[in-house]
Amino acid sequence: MATEAAPETPGYRQPDIDVLALQRVLDGPYAEVRDLVRTNLASHAAVLEDAETMGRDEFRERVRELVVEIAATGQTGMGFPAEYGGGGDLGASIAAFETLAYGDLSVLVKVGVQFGLFGGAILQLGTKAHHDAYLRDTITGTTMGCFAMTETGHGSNVQRLGTTAAYDATTQEFVLHTPDDQARKDYIGNAAAHAELAVVFAQLRVATEEGGTPTDQGVHAFVVPLRREGKVLPGIRIEDCGPKMGLDGVDNGRIWFDHVRVPREALLDRFAQVSASGVYTSSIDNPNRRFFTMLGTLVQGRVSVGGAGINAAKVAITLATTYAGRRRQFEATAPPEEDVLLDYGLHQRRLLPLLARTYALHFAQQVVAEQLHDVFTNEVAGTDGEKARRELEARAAGTKALGTWHATRTIQECREACGGAGYLSANRFAALKADTDVFTTFEGDNHVLLQLVAKGLLTDYASEFEDLDQFGMVRFVAATAVETVIERTRVHKLLTRLKDVLPGGDEWAQEAGLLDPNYQLAMLRFREEHMLAGLARRLKRGIDAGDNPGVVFSRVQAHVIAAANAHVERLVLDAFVDACRSVAAEPDLKVALGLLCDLFALSTIEADRAWFMEHGRLGSARSKAISREVDDLCRKLRPLAQDLVDAFGIPAEMLRAPDLLGPA
Amino acid sequence: MATEAAPETPGYRQPDIDVLALQRVLDGPYAEVRDLVRTNLASHAAVLEDAETMGRDEFRERVRELVVEIAATGQTGMGFPAEYGGGGDLGASIAAFETLAYGDLSVLVKVGVQFGLFGGAILQLGTKAHHDAYLRDTITGTTMGCFAMTETGHGSNVQRLGTTAAYDATTQEFVLHTPDDQARKDYIGNAAAHAELAVVFAQLRVATEEGGTPTDQGVHAFVVPLRREGKVLPGIRIEDCGPKMGLDGVDNGRIWFDHVRVPREALLDRFAQVSASGVYTSSIDNPNRRFFTMLGTLVQGRVSVGGAGINAAKVAITLATTYAGRRRQFEATAPPEEDVLLDYGLHQRRLLPLLARTYALHFAQQVVAEQLHDVFTNEVAGTDGEKARRELEARAAGTKALGTWHATRTIQECREACGGAGYLSANRFAALKADTDVFTTFEGDNHVLLQLVAKGLLTDYASEFEDLDQFGMVRFVAATAVETVIERTRVHKLLTRLKDVLPGGDEWAQEAGLLDPNYQLAMLRFREEHMLAGLARRLKRGIDAGDNPGVVFSRVQAHVIAAANAHVERLVLDAFVDACRSVAAEPDLKVALGLLCDLFALSTIEADRAWFMEHGRLGSARSKAISREVDDLCRKLRPLAQDLVDAFGIPAEMLRAPDLLGPA
């Protein structure tokens, strides 16, 4: 096609991408781990077809076998201590999990349940006795476990779970009980068929002094046997959740406990203990804070799901981009030959900003994975460690939300861009769409997670905020934190700070080049801080007026989400800009990543340009110029698109899709 | 919850909705037909479970039986002439089809294939002999047929189909042939298992004068037997398309023809005939025009799919709204009681604008269905009739695109709003999502359809545009139509016209009330005409500069889509405003529909407020005021939400969802 491949930008030379070198950049420090997973994926590629051809029960068994097989390669145990057969490297564990998302996602989720959620809870909430008892067999998959937190009545508000665990000092046992159907454990992966053990979250009822009256101590975790030799134990009822949208290889179930007794040692007692005589002690006095500390240790689940979402998006964008580079439809340029889809301006606009955002999120995910590794590898005590953990949790929450929404959106757009062929299961979108759909609401509902991000920003990750429920948080923020936020983000200060990095004084928005990363970052930072200040003011105004805190919160909730999103998008751009700098020595890669980074930054600003105009940071002319620049960047990236998706290093076996990827 | 149910607007009184009266408004002139379908749906509700529990082959048979059963009630034959057992009312046929979308969508699509596509092609492209031969058994479902248009290599560009039909005068037969795999018929519903007949679209090769050399006459349709007593006939190869994302009850297949001979009478010859000796004649000289005229008669398929998408969205929004009115999570307002989801501002923002748009699209669909009925019932000859048909086709294309994208988006948002429960098949979203996904790309890819809409606007539905391929269109528009469009839409004229309906002279944007429908319509009309003029200018500029028309087209393609979208959204608002006026005599309904209409109009403007700011029609302050008004409207609609979804009249049996709709 006589297409406008590269608009004439002075000095622009189309880069020549070394795909393997770019893959090395993307793979980062854990390239070997990722390659191990790629090899495992390729050798078990038949599972993608099994997912279609096998009945549900058969496929569940197949997935279980596969999980045990890949466990034997060491792939799934990398995050556990070496003394139990693990790899002792949490970062490696995340890299392995992310890469596994190139394949069948039932396998991925089963791995996540077994090693991340169940094994992770034993490791993080338990102590040596639990580790000794369970970790070795968990790592091999010999013992299957499940993570019984969510209940029918409570998914997001975990503090309000209904399952109870009352201590009986006479027998030194906890009695686990499901008082009603709202308190049944629900959607629990591995529960319907395979789990022999469960980590069960329940409201602990025990005294706090010798001979005292038992009282509620909040949610705690217990190891509870569910099955022996495949048979469900007495007092326990398990029901299959029934057919689901996707993830057919994962056996989700519901669990009821009828006064089930477990020994005192079943309590995962890293953060709280119950003595034989029934006295409760904890190193963390405040119950809210204790609860959030326990939950906080499970943050790797969110980091994992975020990474998995981003990698599932890579599969979709690789399929759609490759197809669009081959498929011809309609004679537009030189009849009678039809044009290649990717030469159409609209098609570039549909796919390439999503590709750029996929790269951006990839690098942001690398940052959060690294941060996770650091925080858990070098546990820092005191306030600094506390703050680092809170920041990690907020970043993990934000990246998970944006990464999984990006997956949903990208998979959908790519399916549509592949037309009817995209609808056939052989071409992968059916499974991608059905299996990833739940990513946006499990491991923390995305909207709830973004509220967590905003909370952290409003309180500057002060540990006090952990003492508060939703209701108290609003009052706290309004009373205590708002002035600080308003002070910190006051617009003239913000502009002054930004002036330092940008030319043009107060006119920076007009003067700075659109392709200057400092300009792009300044725009995203301005948005973030301005939104945060506005949010703080709205909260304060409502509380000062004597309104009910819940009503105030409800009124500003959309602003909460917007502010959190603005913050996370800025973090993502930070990560991408840093990544571009890291390849400074490789000129062609630098140009290619630079184009993607510009496209991500400008399409992000473009998508929210109304806000920037409303807040005086963008005039009509410049706003239109940004849209034109996005068009130009798409045209520049079009000839690079195939290399850019190839660099994800998705094994050919995982792409299947004979109809999409066959000869044009 | 101490929620802000209704912001204090002077004189505002919360309406008391008579749900049945509102349902009558929504049902329109075909309430009886819709009720018949509701009854049929309820009595066959078990099919929703069958879709999960049965294997693919069994479920296909079940769906086939069901289609034949409901055919016997008259529900599916309403659009056919009475003399063959039909209902003789095309409007009734659309109403029935739309309502069927409340149920299992394999049944819907099978009905669409059999009665809409196959039966519709026989009716519209054939003549009396074909009607006599096939219609009666088609209407009862005794004979199953398929519509073999799409090929692997050509979905959107139907004119370039590869299947050939050469006339052999010696035997008075057409020889149908598939030259290569790109030309195999693909994704054909009813082909893999059930169809005995196919309407096959192929390139006709025949002479235009006695003894002349056969030449290509373009795509024509033929009735071709595929099976006899269930066995595929010689020369024909049929393959199953294999597993799909959804619609498991529809047997999609691929068909190859190896020099298959059919008699001369197999040509559906309403618009073109071949004499026994092999001479081609047609009342329409121009081949492009002939082709588009033939295709144009099949427009009811698009009207049907658009309506089905909108009604599938109704199911999703009904489930999510009902759930959100019962589900409690997090104590925000009055601890320890948790708050109802729909009392949260964010949840209102997520669901209620989608509800408003569902209503808007419903009324827009009623308009296009009525127009379809009129055009086909009172066929008007000459230029007027021609223009009416072109306008209908454009409106059908636009409504289909917006209706089906709305379905995808609404179902996704509603699934997420129902959390993990939304992921379970019993709660309907799994099927809704998987089955409707293909709606955006079948019966015309939405992006291609919006280009068709824009073409109509640029050429003012001049019949000449039908003579042109994509390439020629760009040149034609640039050379001929652009001046007219620019003249017609010149901004000062536009503003003058708008001033007549609005107070405040040139300041109307500032003066007019946000809730004045004249203001809302003026905004959408301004956007539409301004975009169209801009598009025309861009096309002209490119062609004047000597650029390749295809390159010019590629460059403006995103503007083409935007202009078409703006046009269709304006039509939708027109339809909604008219619908509000039609209930003027019922004050409570008028208020309720007025709120929804305001919410649709303002959230539509809000979503594109960047454009309005860029083009001087919205200042920052007013833009923010629109967002606040959207918030207010959501709060006002919150207490009405349940009544508003109940008025869709979806049979309780179709909602299933015990987890979502059970007691709170």
Automatic annotation (TrEMBL), chains A, B:
Per the record, the domain of life is Bacteria
Provide an example Pfam family for this protein.
ACOX_C_alpha1
User: What Gene3D superfamilies does UniProt report for this protein, alphabetically?
Assistant: Acyl-CoA dehydrogenase/oxidase, N-terminal domain, Butyryl-CoA Dehydrogenase, subunit A, domain 2, Butyryl-CoA Dehydrogenase, subunit A, domain 3
Residue ranges constituting the Acyl-CoA dehydrogenase/oxidase N-terminal domain according to the UniProt record: 32-141
> Any idea which UniProt keywords this protein has?
FAD, Flavoprotein, Oxidoreductase
Where's the Acyl-CoA oxidase/dehydrogenase middle domain? 146-260
Residue ranges occupied by any Acyl-CoA oxidase C-terminal domain in the UniProt entry: 516-658
The residues covered by the Acyl-CoA oxidase C-alpha1 domain are 296-458
Q: What's the cofactor?
A: FAD
Cite the PANTHER family for this sequence: ACYL-COENZYME A OXIDASE, ELECTRON TRANSPORT OXIDOREDUCTASE
Family classification: Belongs to the acyl-CoA oxidase family.
Q: What is this protein called?
A: Acyl-CoA dehydrogenase
